[in-house]
Amino acid sequence: MSEFLDSFWATYSTLVLSLGVNALLALSIWLTLSCGLLSLANAAFMGIGAYAAALLTLQVDAPFAVALAGGAALPALVALLIGIPTLRLSGVYLAMATLGFGEVVRVAILNMEITGGPLGLNDIPLKTEWWHVGLALLLVLYVLARLRRSKIGRAFEAIKEDEIAARLMGIDVTASKLLAFTLGGAIAGLAGALNAHFTFFLSPREYGFENAVDILTMAVLGGTSNLAGPVVGAMILTLLPELLRSLKDFRLATNGLILVLVVLFMPKGIVDPLRWRGWQGWRVWCRNK
Amino acid sequence: MFEQQLINALSLGCVYALFALGFTLVFGVLGVINLSHGAVFMLGSYVALLLVGHLEWPLWLAMLAAALTSGVAGLLIDWLVLRPLRAREAPHLIPMIATIGVTILITSLMQGFFGAEVQRFPFGIVPEDSFNFLLPWQAADSEPLHVTLLQLMIVFISFTLMALLLFIMRRTQIGRALRAIAESPKAAYLLGIDVEGMFRLTSFVAAALGGIAGVLIGLSFNAISPFMGQPALHKGIAVIILGGMGDIRGALIGGLFLGLVEVMSVAYLSSDYRDAVSFGLLFLILLVRPSGLFGRVLERKA
Amino acid sequence: MLSLSHVSKHFGGLHVLEDVSFEVPTGSIFGLIGPNGAGKTTVFNLITGLLQPSSGSIHFAGNNLAGMPPHRITRRGIARTFQNIRIFREMTLLENVIVGMNPHLSYGVAGLLLNLPGYRRAEARARERAMELLSWMRLDGKADLLADNLSYGDQRKLEFARALATEPKLLLLDEPVAGMNPAEKIELMEEIRNIQARGYSIFLIEHDMRFVMNLCERIAVLNFGRIIADGKPEDIRSNPAVIEAYLGRDEDEGADAEIAA
Prior knowledge:
- The complex is a heterotrimer of chains A (about 290), B (about 300) and C (about 260).
- Chain A has about 290 residues and is mainly alpha-helical.
- Chain A has one domain (about 10-290): ABC transporter involved in vitamin B12 uptake, BtuC, CATH 1.10.3470.
- Chain A has 12 helices and no strands.
- In chain C, strand 9 (about 220-225) and strand 10 form a beta hairpin.
- The relative contact order of chain C is 0.17.
- The interface of A and B includes residues 255 and 267 of A.
């Protein structure tokens, strides 16, 4: 039995770990979406977290926990700094500002010496175990679930529906958005830090626009009405390329197609309890016929 | 020297403005951030490349065809993707996400057909003529300023199109209808304006403008690739943020301004930091004026 | 309770409000009327902080509201409903009302993360209070329905309940009976009187003259951005400036009678 597990792990460890990391990323963008923000900066935050953690490990030989903490903290700080001026913008400007920010980060990473420039960082020690990722995922899910059921989660939902009405209900909209943005950045950064320590090397190419879109697709595909959605979306989009190896070249096109089709035909994503309830109603009706 | 950079900035800025114009038109009238604008821009470029390179069409005809093709593409995107979302009254982020999907689709398909390498116009197509001249206040022995025919062409085409657009918006019935829709589609509908028809027209024209911009940029840098839409889109976004959403003059001034910033930062700083400087400036401007230099308040009545 | 002193609002060259002054007494039902475009909703927007006055000042319960962001003004005790109802459609009635209580729920991050007793108590109290407010509006039976599924009249009532949830001292009602039939209007009039009896001050904007005359204790009249009258309903009714504002320069006996009716 343990031999089976070992060989399974040998083949699929990267896949499983990627599943976890992608789930975290999808959740990070879910958080901002739940507040009505479309942040295309989460890939950049992931990058910042990845580089920060990797550098902590490589340059200072920091213990893993510290590297992870740094990987979550630095993007959060950056998110706070950019968030304060840009979150005053309306949703549409904001999405574009975050897009622009992502570019700035990418260019910065590309041109800094410490990050190894276009060649990235190499020889990052393999430190991430499955339980690190699992623990992180569970922790994040717990925190997000508790947030949802609190005044903070309700404030997010109100803001998402109608920002002005929310303001007039006494909700500090800017502070709430800042919270969602910063926390989302931290989660993305954590994902990046975990990722860095099982992929051996980092390059700036992995944190650009396409990756931001990947993350968005996962959340949109899975559905944003509850926490299970992004996780499901992440699972599907991580496993799909594996299942359809022959279509590897078309992965990007497939992503694009999925985005369009889901938005058009399944607007609330796959995990949509209301639609399921609708189906159940239909089944009951059929049975009673 | 400085004046030379200004000339370069003018020509670059004009193309940015042209691209941004289509973008801002769609936003102003349809209320949607159409992120597939970069893809239709790229399509225009390829169409011109193919027609000129393989069928040996004259450049002006190829440009027209490119505009038409891009326009049709924009129309299709509106019809297939944006229209159903409108019918559903989806919140504004949704169409934006959908257009991201469309962009990726088109880009990957083009990559599949034409490969990812950068392609060039055949030798001799790009007008090589240039003029050298001195401005009145320059010393007789200083280095003359250098303007290429292409740059003149770009400036001429851009200004003509923009003037045409402004004229249409301000002085014609269609322009009035479009402005009414930009204020409030429902009110416009009640006034008897064919709102859906106007949406289709706008999508077509905007994409056509993007296609022309694509050809001009393709000629300017003589580099065409499936991914050229992306940086263009970022610049378009920067222009719109600078100049304000839905404002035609804003697109023009924002485009010129961005062209200036880019050319100056390449000339006096380093080309590596060009994009960082542009976006950095963008943030600073947004800090001071969240709705851009000319932006209007975004609260759009239903 | 609320006083506006020489408030003006200009948008570029457009003078929407000019030297507007009036007072809303504590515990009263106060009405602001005026022809369309007179600037009534702008007054509300100024009071709630969505706009800032170009000149003049607004005082509430002794505090100057200048420069305060909307959410802080709400926390100070001013709540508002909207002309074109802005309830949260994708949330249930209960959730809509509980959102209004957000500023008054005091538990910290630790509380909500660890499900501490303080958090649980606060949430339970919030639910109770929300149900209570819904029952005032006779909506408690529908507490778990999605707000989107309500009838128009019920949606208006939900907006009231939600506004009350913010524990205001002053309620601003923007055209509360727009689109209602006479029976619903009478019912709402009763509701508003009940709310006043519970100790709230009410300031409303309306077009329906009969409604305003019957309900309000004091009325101010706005025309072209200026206050042209301020006083008891009987005085307003017979005020020539008011009649002129509504009817133009025509001293129409018939219309006169209509206002008096």
